[in-house]
Specification:
The chain is of the alpha/beta class and about 300 residues long. It has a single domain (about 5-310), classed as TIM Barrel, CATH 3.20.20. It is built from 11 helices and 8 strands. An 8-stranded parallel barrel has the order 1-2-3-4-5-6-7-8, surrounded by 6 helices. Strand 4 (about 110-115), helix 6 and strand 5 (about 155-160) form a beta-alpha-beta unit. The relative contact order is 0.13. The model has no long low-confidence stretch (mean pLDDT about 95).
């Protein structure tokens, strides 16, 4: 069975081309590589900072038939935006930054815009920040629903580690599910990323079965957990097969099998009203990796895993 019948396979563009991660760099030029590759049905992009590049990117992708996942999650991480913060000023600044990014996602006709929880404030303050985060996400979901025109924009939260490297409030998948249940918005769901599962000590089946009723988006990728002195330690998404990495073809096969077991492809289609997206999130290591080599590393690994889980 060809994956094109089931899923739009995507790529997180600003990690293959790291110079685009902050919304600058050769965004349009490098996106043409993905646009020209018919294996891809989706692309995930950082919000371009330059209004002209924003328009050029939107025009290029509009002509490509690629689905777009918009990534406000990158400004959240890079600019240290604190949704749900106990600091009223920081919280207001985060909300003010997020709403124009939601408008941009809608202008791209994106089905999904990704967000993240704030940094972990420590056990004593987690409940208070969680309450504020729920309120902020509800407000952003309402804003997105009110501004959506041709299609409803969904916000999807990606959970990270709490004590390894990203150190965010929402770590365990069960707590991400709890957040989704508190938010209780039609256009809110979860992204489950294979890269993060070793970092939160969960297997694909544990995470996906826990998130089954809320998952709307998925990533495959790699991480480094066993080499504490490595510059890649944590959530830095080295290529599949990296000697320090935790995930390679067997783990991707396991993840795809677990996705099938929870009927991810059917559930996400029903929720989003469009073809579900499964993207590879691999990051080039400066001075070591060629972007095209890493791009094709991910494609080959996905194709081999899909063939193994969908024999003819």
């Amino acid at each position: 069975m060809n994956w094109i019948d089931q899923v739009d396979f995507g790529v997180v563009h600003p990690l293959i081309w790291l110079e685009c991660r902050n919304g600058e760099g050769p965004i349009v030029e490098t996106l043409r590589t993905i646009v020209g590759d018919s294996d891809f049905g989706a692309v995930e992009i950082a919000p371009p900072k330059d209004p002209l590049v924003l328009r050029q990117t939107r025009d290029l992708l509009a002509s490509s038939a690629l689905q777009v996942v918009y990534l406000p999650i990158l400004p959240i991480i890079i600019e240290k935006l604190e949704l749900g913060s106990l600091d009223d000023g920081a919280r207001a600044a985060a909300m003010a930054r997020m709403k124009p990014l939601i408008d941009e996602a809608i202008a791209f006709s994106a089905p999904i815009a990704m967000i993240a929880s704030p940094l972990d404030p420590g056990e004593a303050n987690r409940a208070a920040v969680m309450d504020r985060l729920v309120d902020d996400i509800r407000e952003l979901c309402d804003y997105a629903a009110a501004r959506s025109k041709k299609r409803l924009l969904f916000l999807s939260l990606e959970n990270f580690d709490r004590d390894i490297e990203k150190k965010r409030l929402i770590g365990p998948t069960a707590e991400a599910v709890q957040l989704a249940e508190y938010v209780d918005a039609q256009n809110f769901g979860l992204t489950i990323d294979l890269s993060h599962l070793p970092l939160i000590n969960e297997t694909p089946r544990e995470a996906l079965q826990t998130a089954q009723q809320h998952i709307i988006h998925a990533h495959i990728g790699n991480c480094v957990l066993d080499y504490h002195e490595s510059p890649l330690y944590g959530d830095f998404h080295p290529r599949f097969g990296h000697p320090q990495g935790r995930n390679d073809l067997p783990e991707v096969i396991d993840f795809l099998e677990a996705l099938e077991e929870i009927d991810y492809f059917g559930l996400a289609r029903d929720s989003l009203g469009t073809t579900p997206i499964l993207s590879m999130e691999l990051r080039t290591t400066p001075g070591e990796d060629d972007p095209i080599a890493v791009l094709n590393n991910g494609k080959r690994t996905f194709k081999r895993a899909w063939a193994a889980t969908h024999p003819t």
